Known about the structure:
Distance between the termini: 128 Å
Order of helices and strands: HHHEEHEEEEHEEEEEEEEEEE
Number of strands: 17
Largest sheet: 10 strands, antiparallel, barrel
Number of helices: 5
Radius of gyration: 34 Å
Helix content: 25-40%
Amino acid sequence: MHLLDLLSTGSRLRSAIMAFVLLVACVSPVVAQPPAPAPAATTASATDVITAVRRAADAYATAFNAGDEKALGDQWTVGAELEEGGTLLKGRDAIVASLKRWREIHPQSSLKIEVTDMKPLGEGVARVQGTLTYTKQAGGEPAISRFDSLRVLEKGVWRIAESRVVPTPRAALADLAWMIGTWQSTDAKSGTTIDATYERTLDDHALVGRIKVKRKDGSNVDSLDVIHADRLTGRVRSWNFDSTGARAEGVFSSDGTSFERKFVATPGNPAAGSRAEWVQVLTPLGRDMLLWHSIERSIDGRSEPDTEPVHLRRIR
C-alpha cells in the first residue's frame, strides 16, 4: 500500500470517528433529559376555574339575600333542573319563581353557601358540592342542606345546569312548620266539623297529626297522620291510619307556595274498593288560614270527582 493510500485511509477513519463522536454528543443529552414538566398554564387554568366557581357560589348567596331576581336567574342555565327533597323543578323561570315565592313567605331569610369540594370535569364543566344554610329570620334556627351541582361556563359566566339538594330531616320538615297548631273547620252546608292538631315529636324529626271528623249524623272518624323526612334523600313522606281501618301513604312536594301530598291508600271498607289514589293540596293563606283540597281522585282506576275545598282556621 502506498503512503498516499495510508494517509487517505487514516483521514477517512478519523473523519468517521469524529462524525460518530459528534452524533453521540448531539443525541445523548436528549436521551438523558427527564420528561418535561406539565406546562404551568394547565395548573393555573384549574386554579382559575376553582376560584371562579367559588366566586359564583358566593354571588348566588349575595343575590338570594338581596332578593335580586335578575342576578339569581343569571346563576342558572335556561334549561336548568333543581331537585330538592323529591321536588323537581325544570327550567330557569320555574326555579327562580319558586325561590321568589319562598322569599316572599320568608322575607327575613338569609342564605350561606359553603363549598366543600369542587372538581373541574373538563373544559367549561365543574362539579360543586357543599352545604346550604338557610335562616328564616335573624336569630332563628338554621336549616342545613347538602347540595351537589353541575356548573357550566356560558359566555364567561359559570351557571348551574343541574343541582340536587338534600335537606337534613329537620330542615326538610322546617318547611311544614306552619302546620304546627290546632286547626278547625265547620261546613255549614253538610254540618261536618274537622279538628286537626299537629305537633313536633322525636326530637323534631317527625310531625304527628291527630284529626277528628265529626259528621252531622253523629258518626266520627279519627285518624293519625305521621310525617317524616328520609335521611338519605330529604324526601318527606307520611303514613295515615284511621278508625275505619283505612291506611294511606303519601309523598310531599312543593312549588314554594302550596304543598301537594300524593296518596296511595287502602280503603277501610272492602266494598269501596282495594286501592284509592288522590292528591291533597295544602295552601297556607297567611299565618292562620289553610285551604285543604283533594284532587285527581280515583278508586281502582275509576276517576272520582274532586272534593270541595275546605277552609281551616288556626285556633291555637
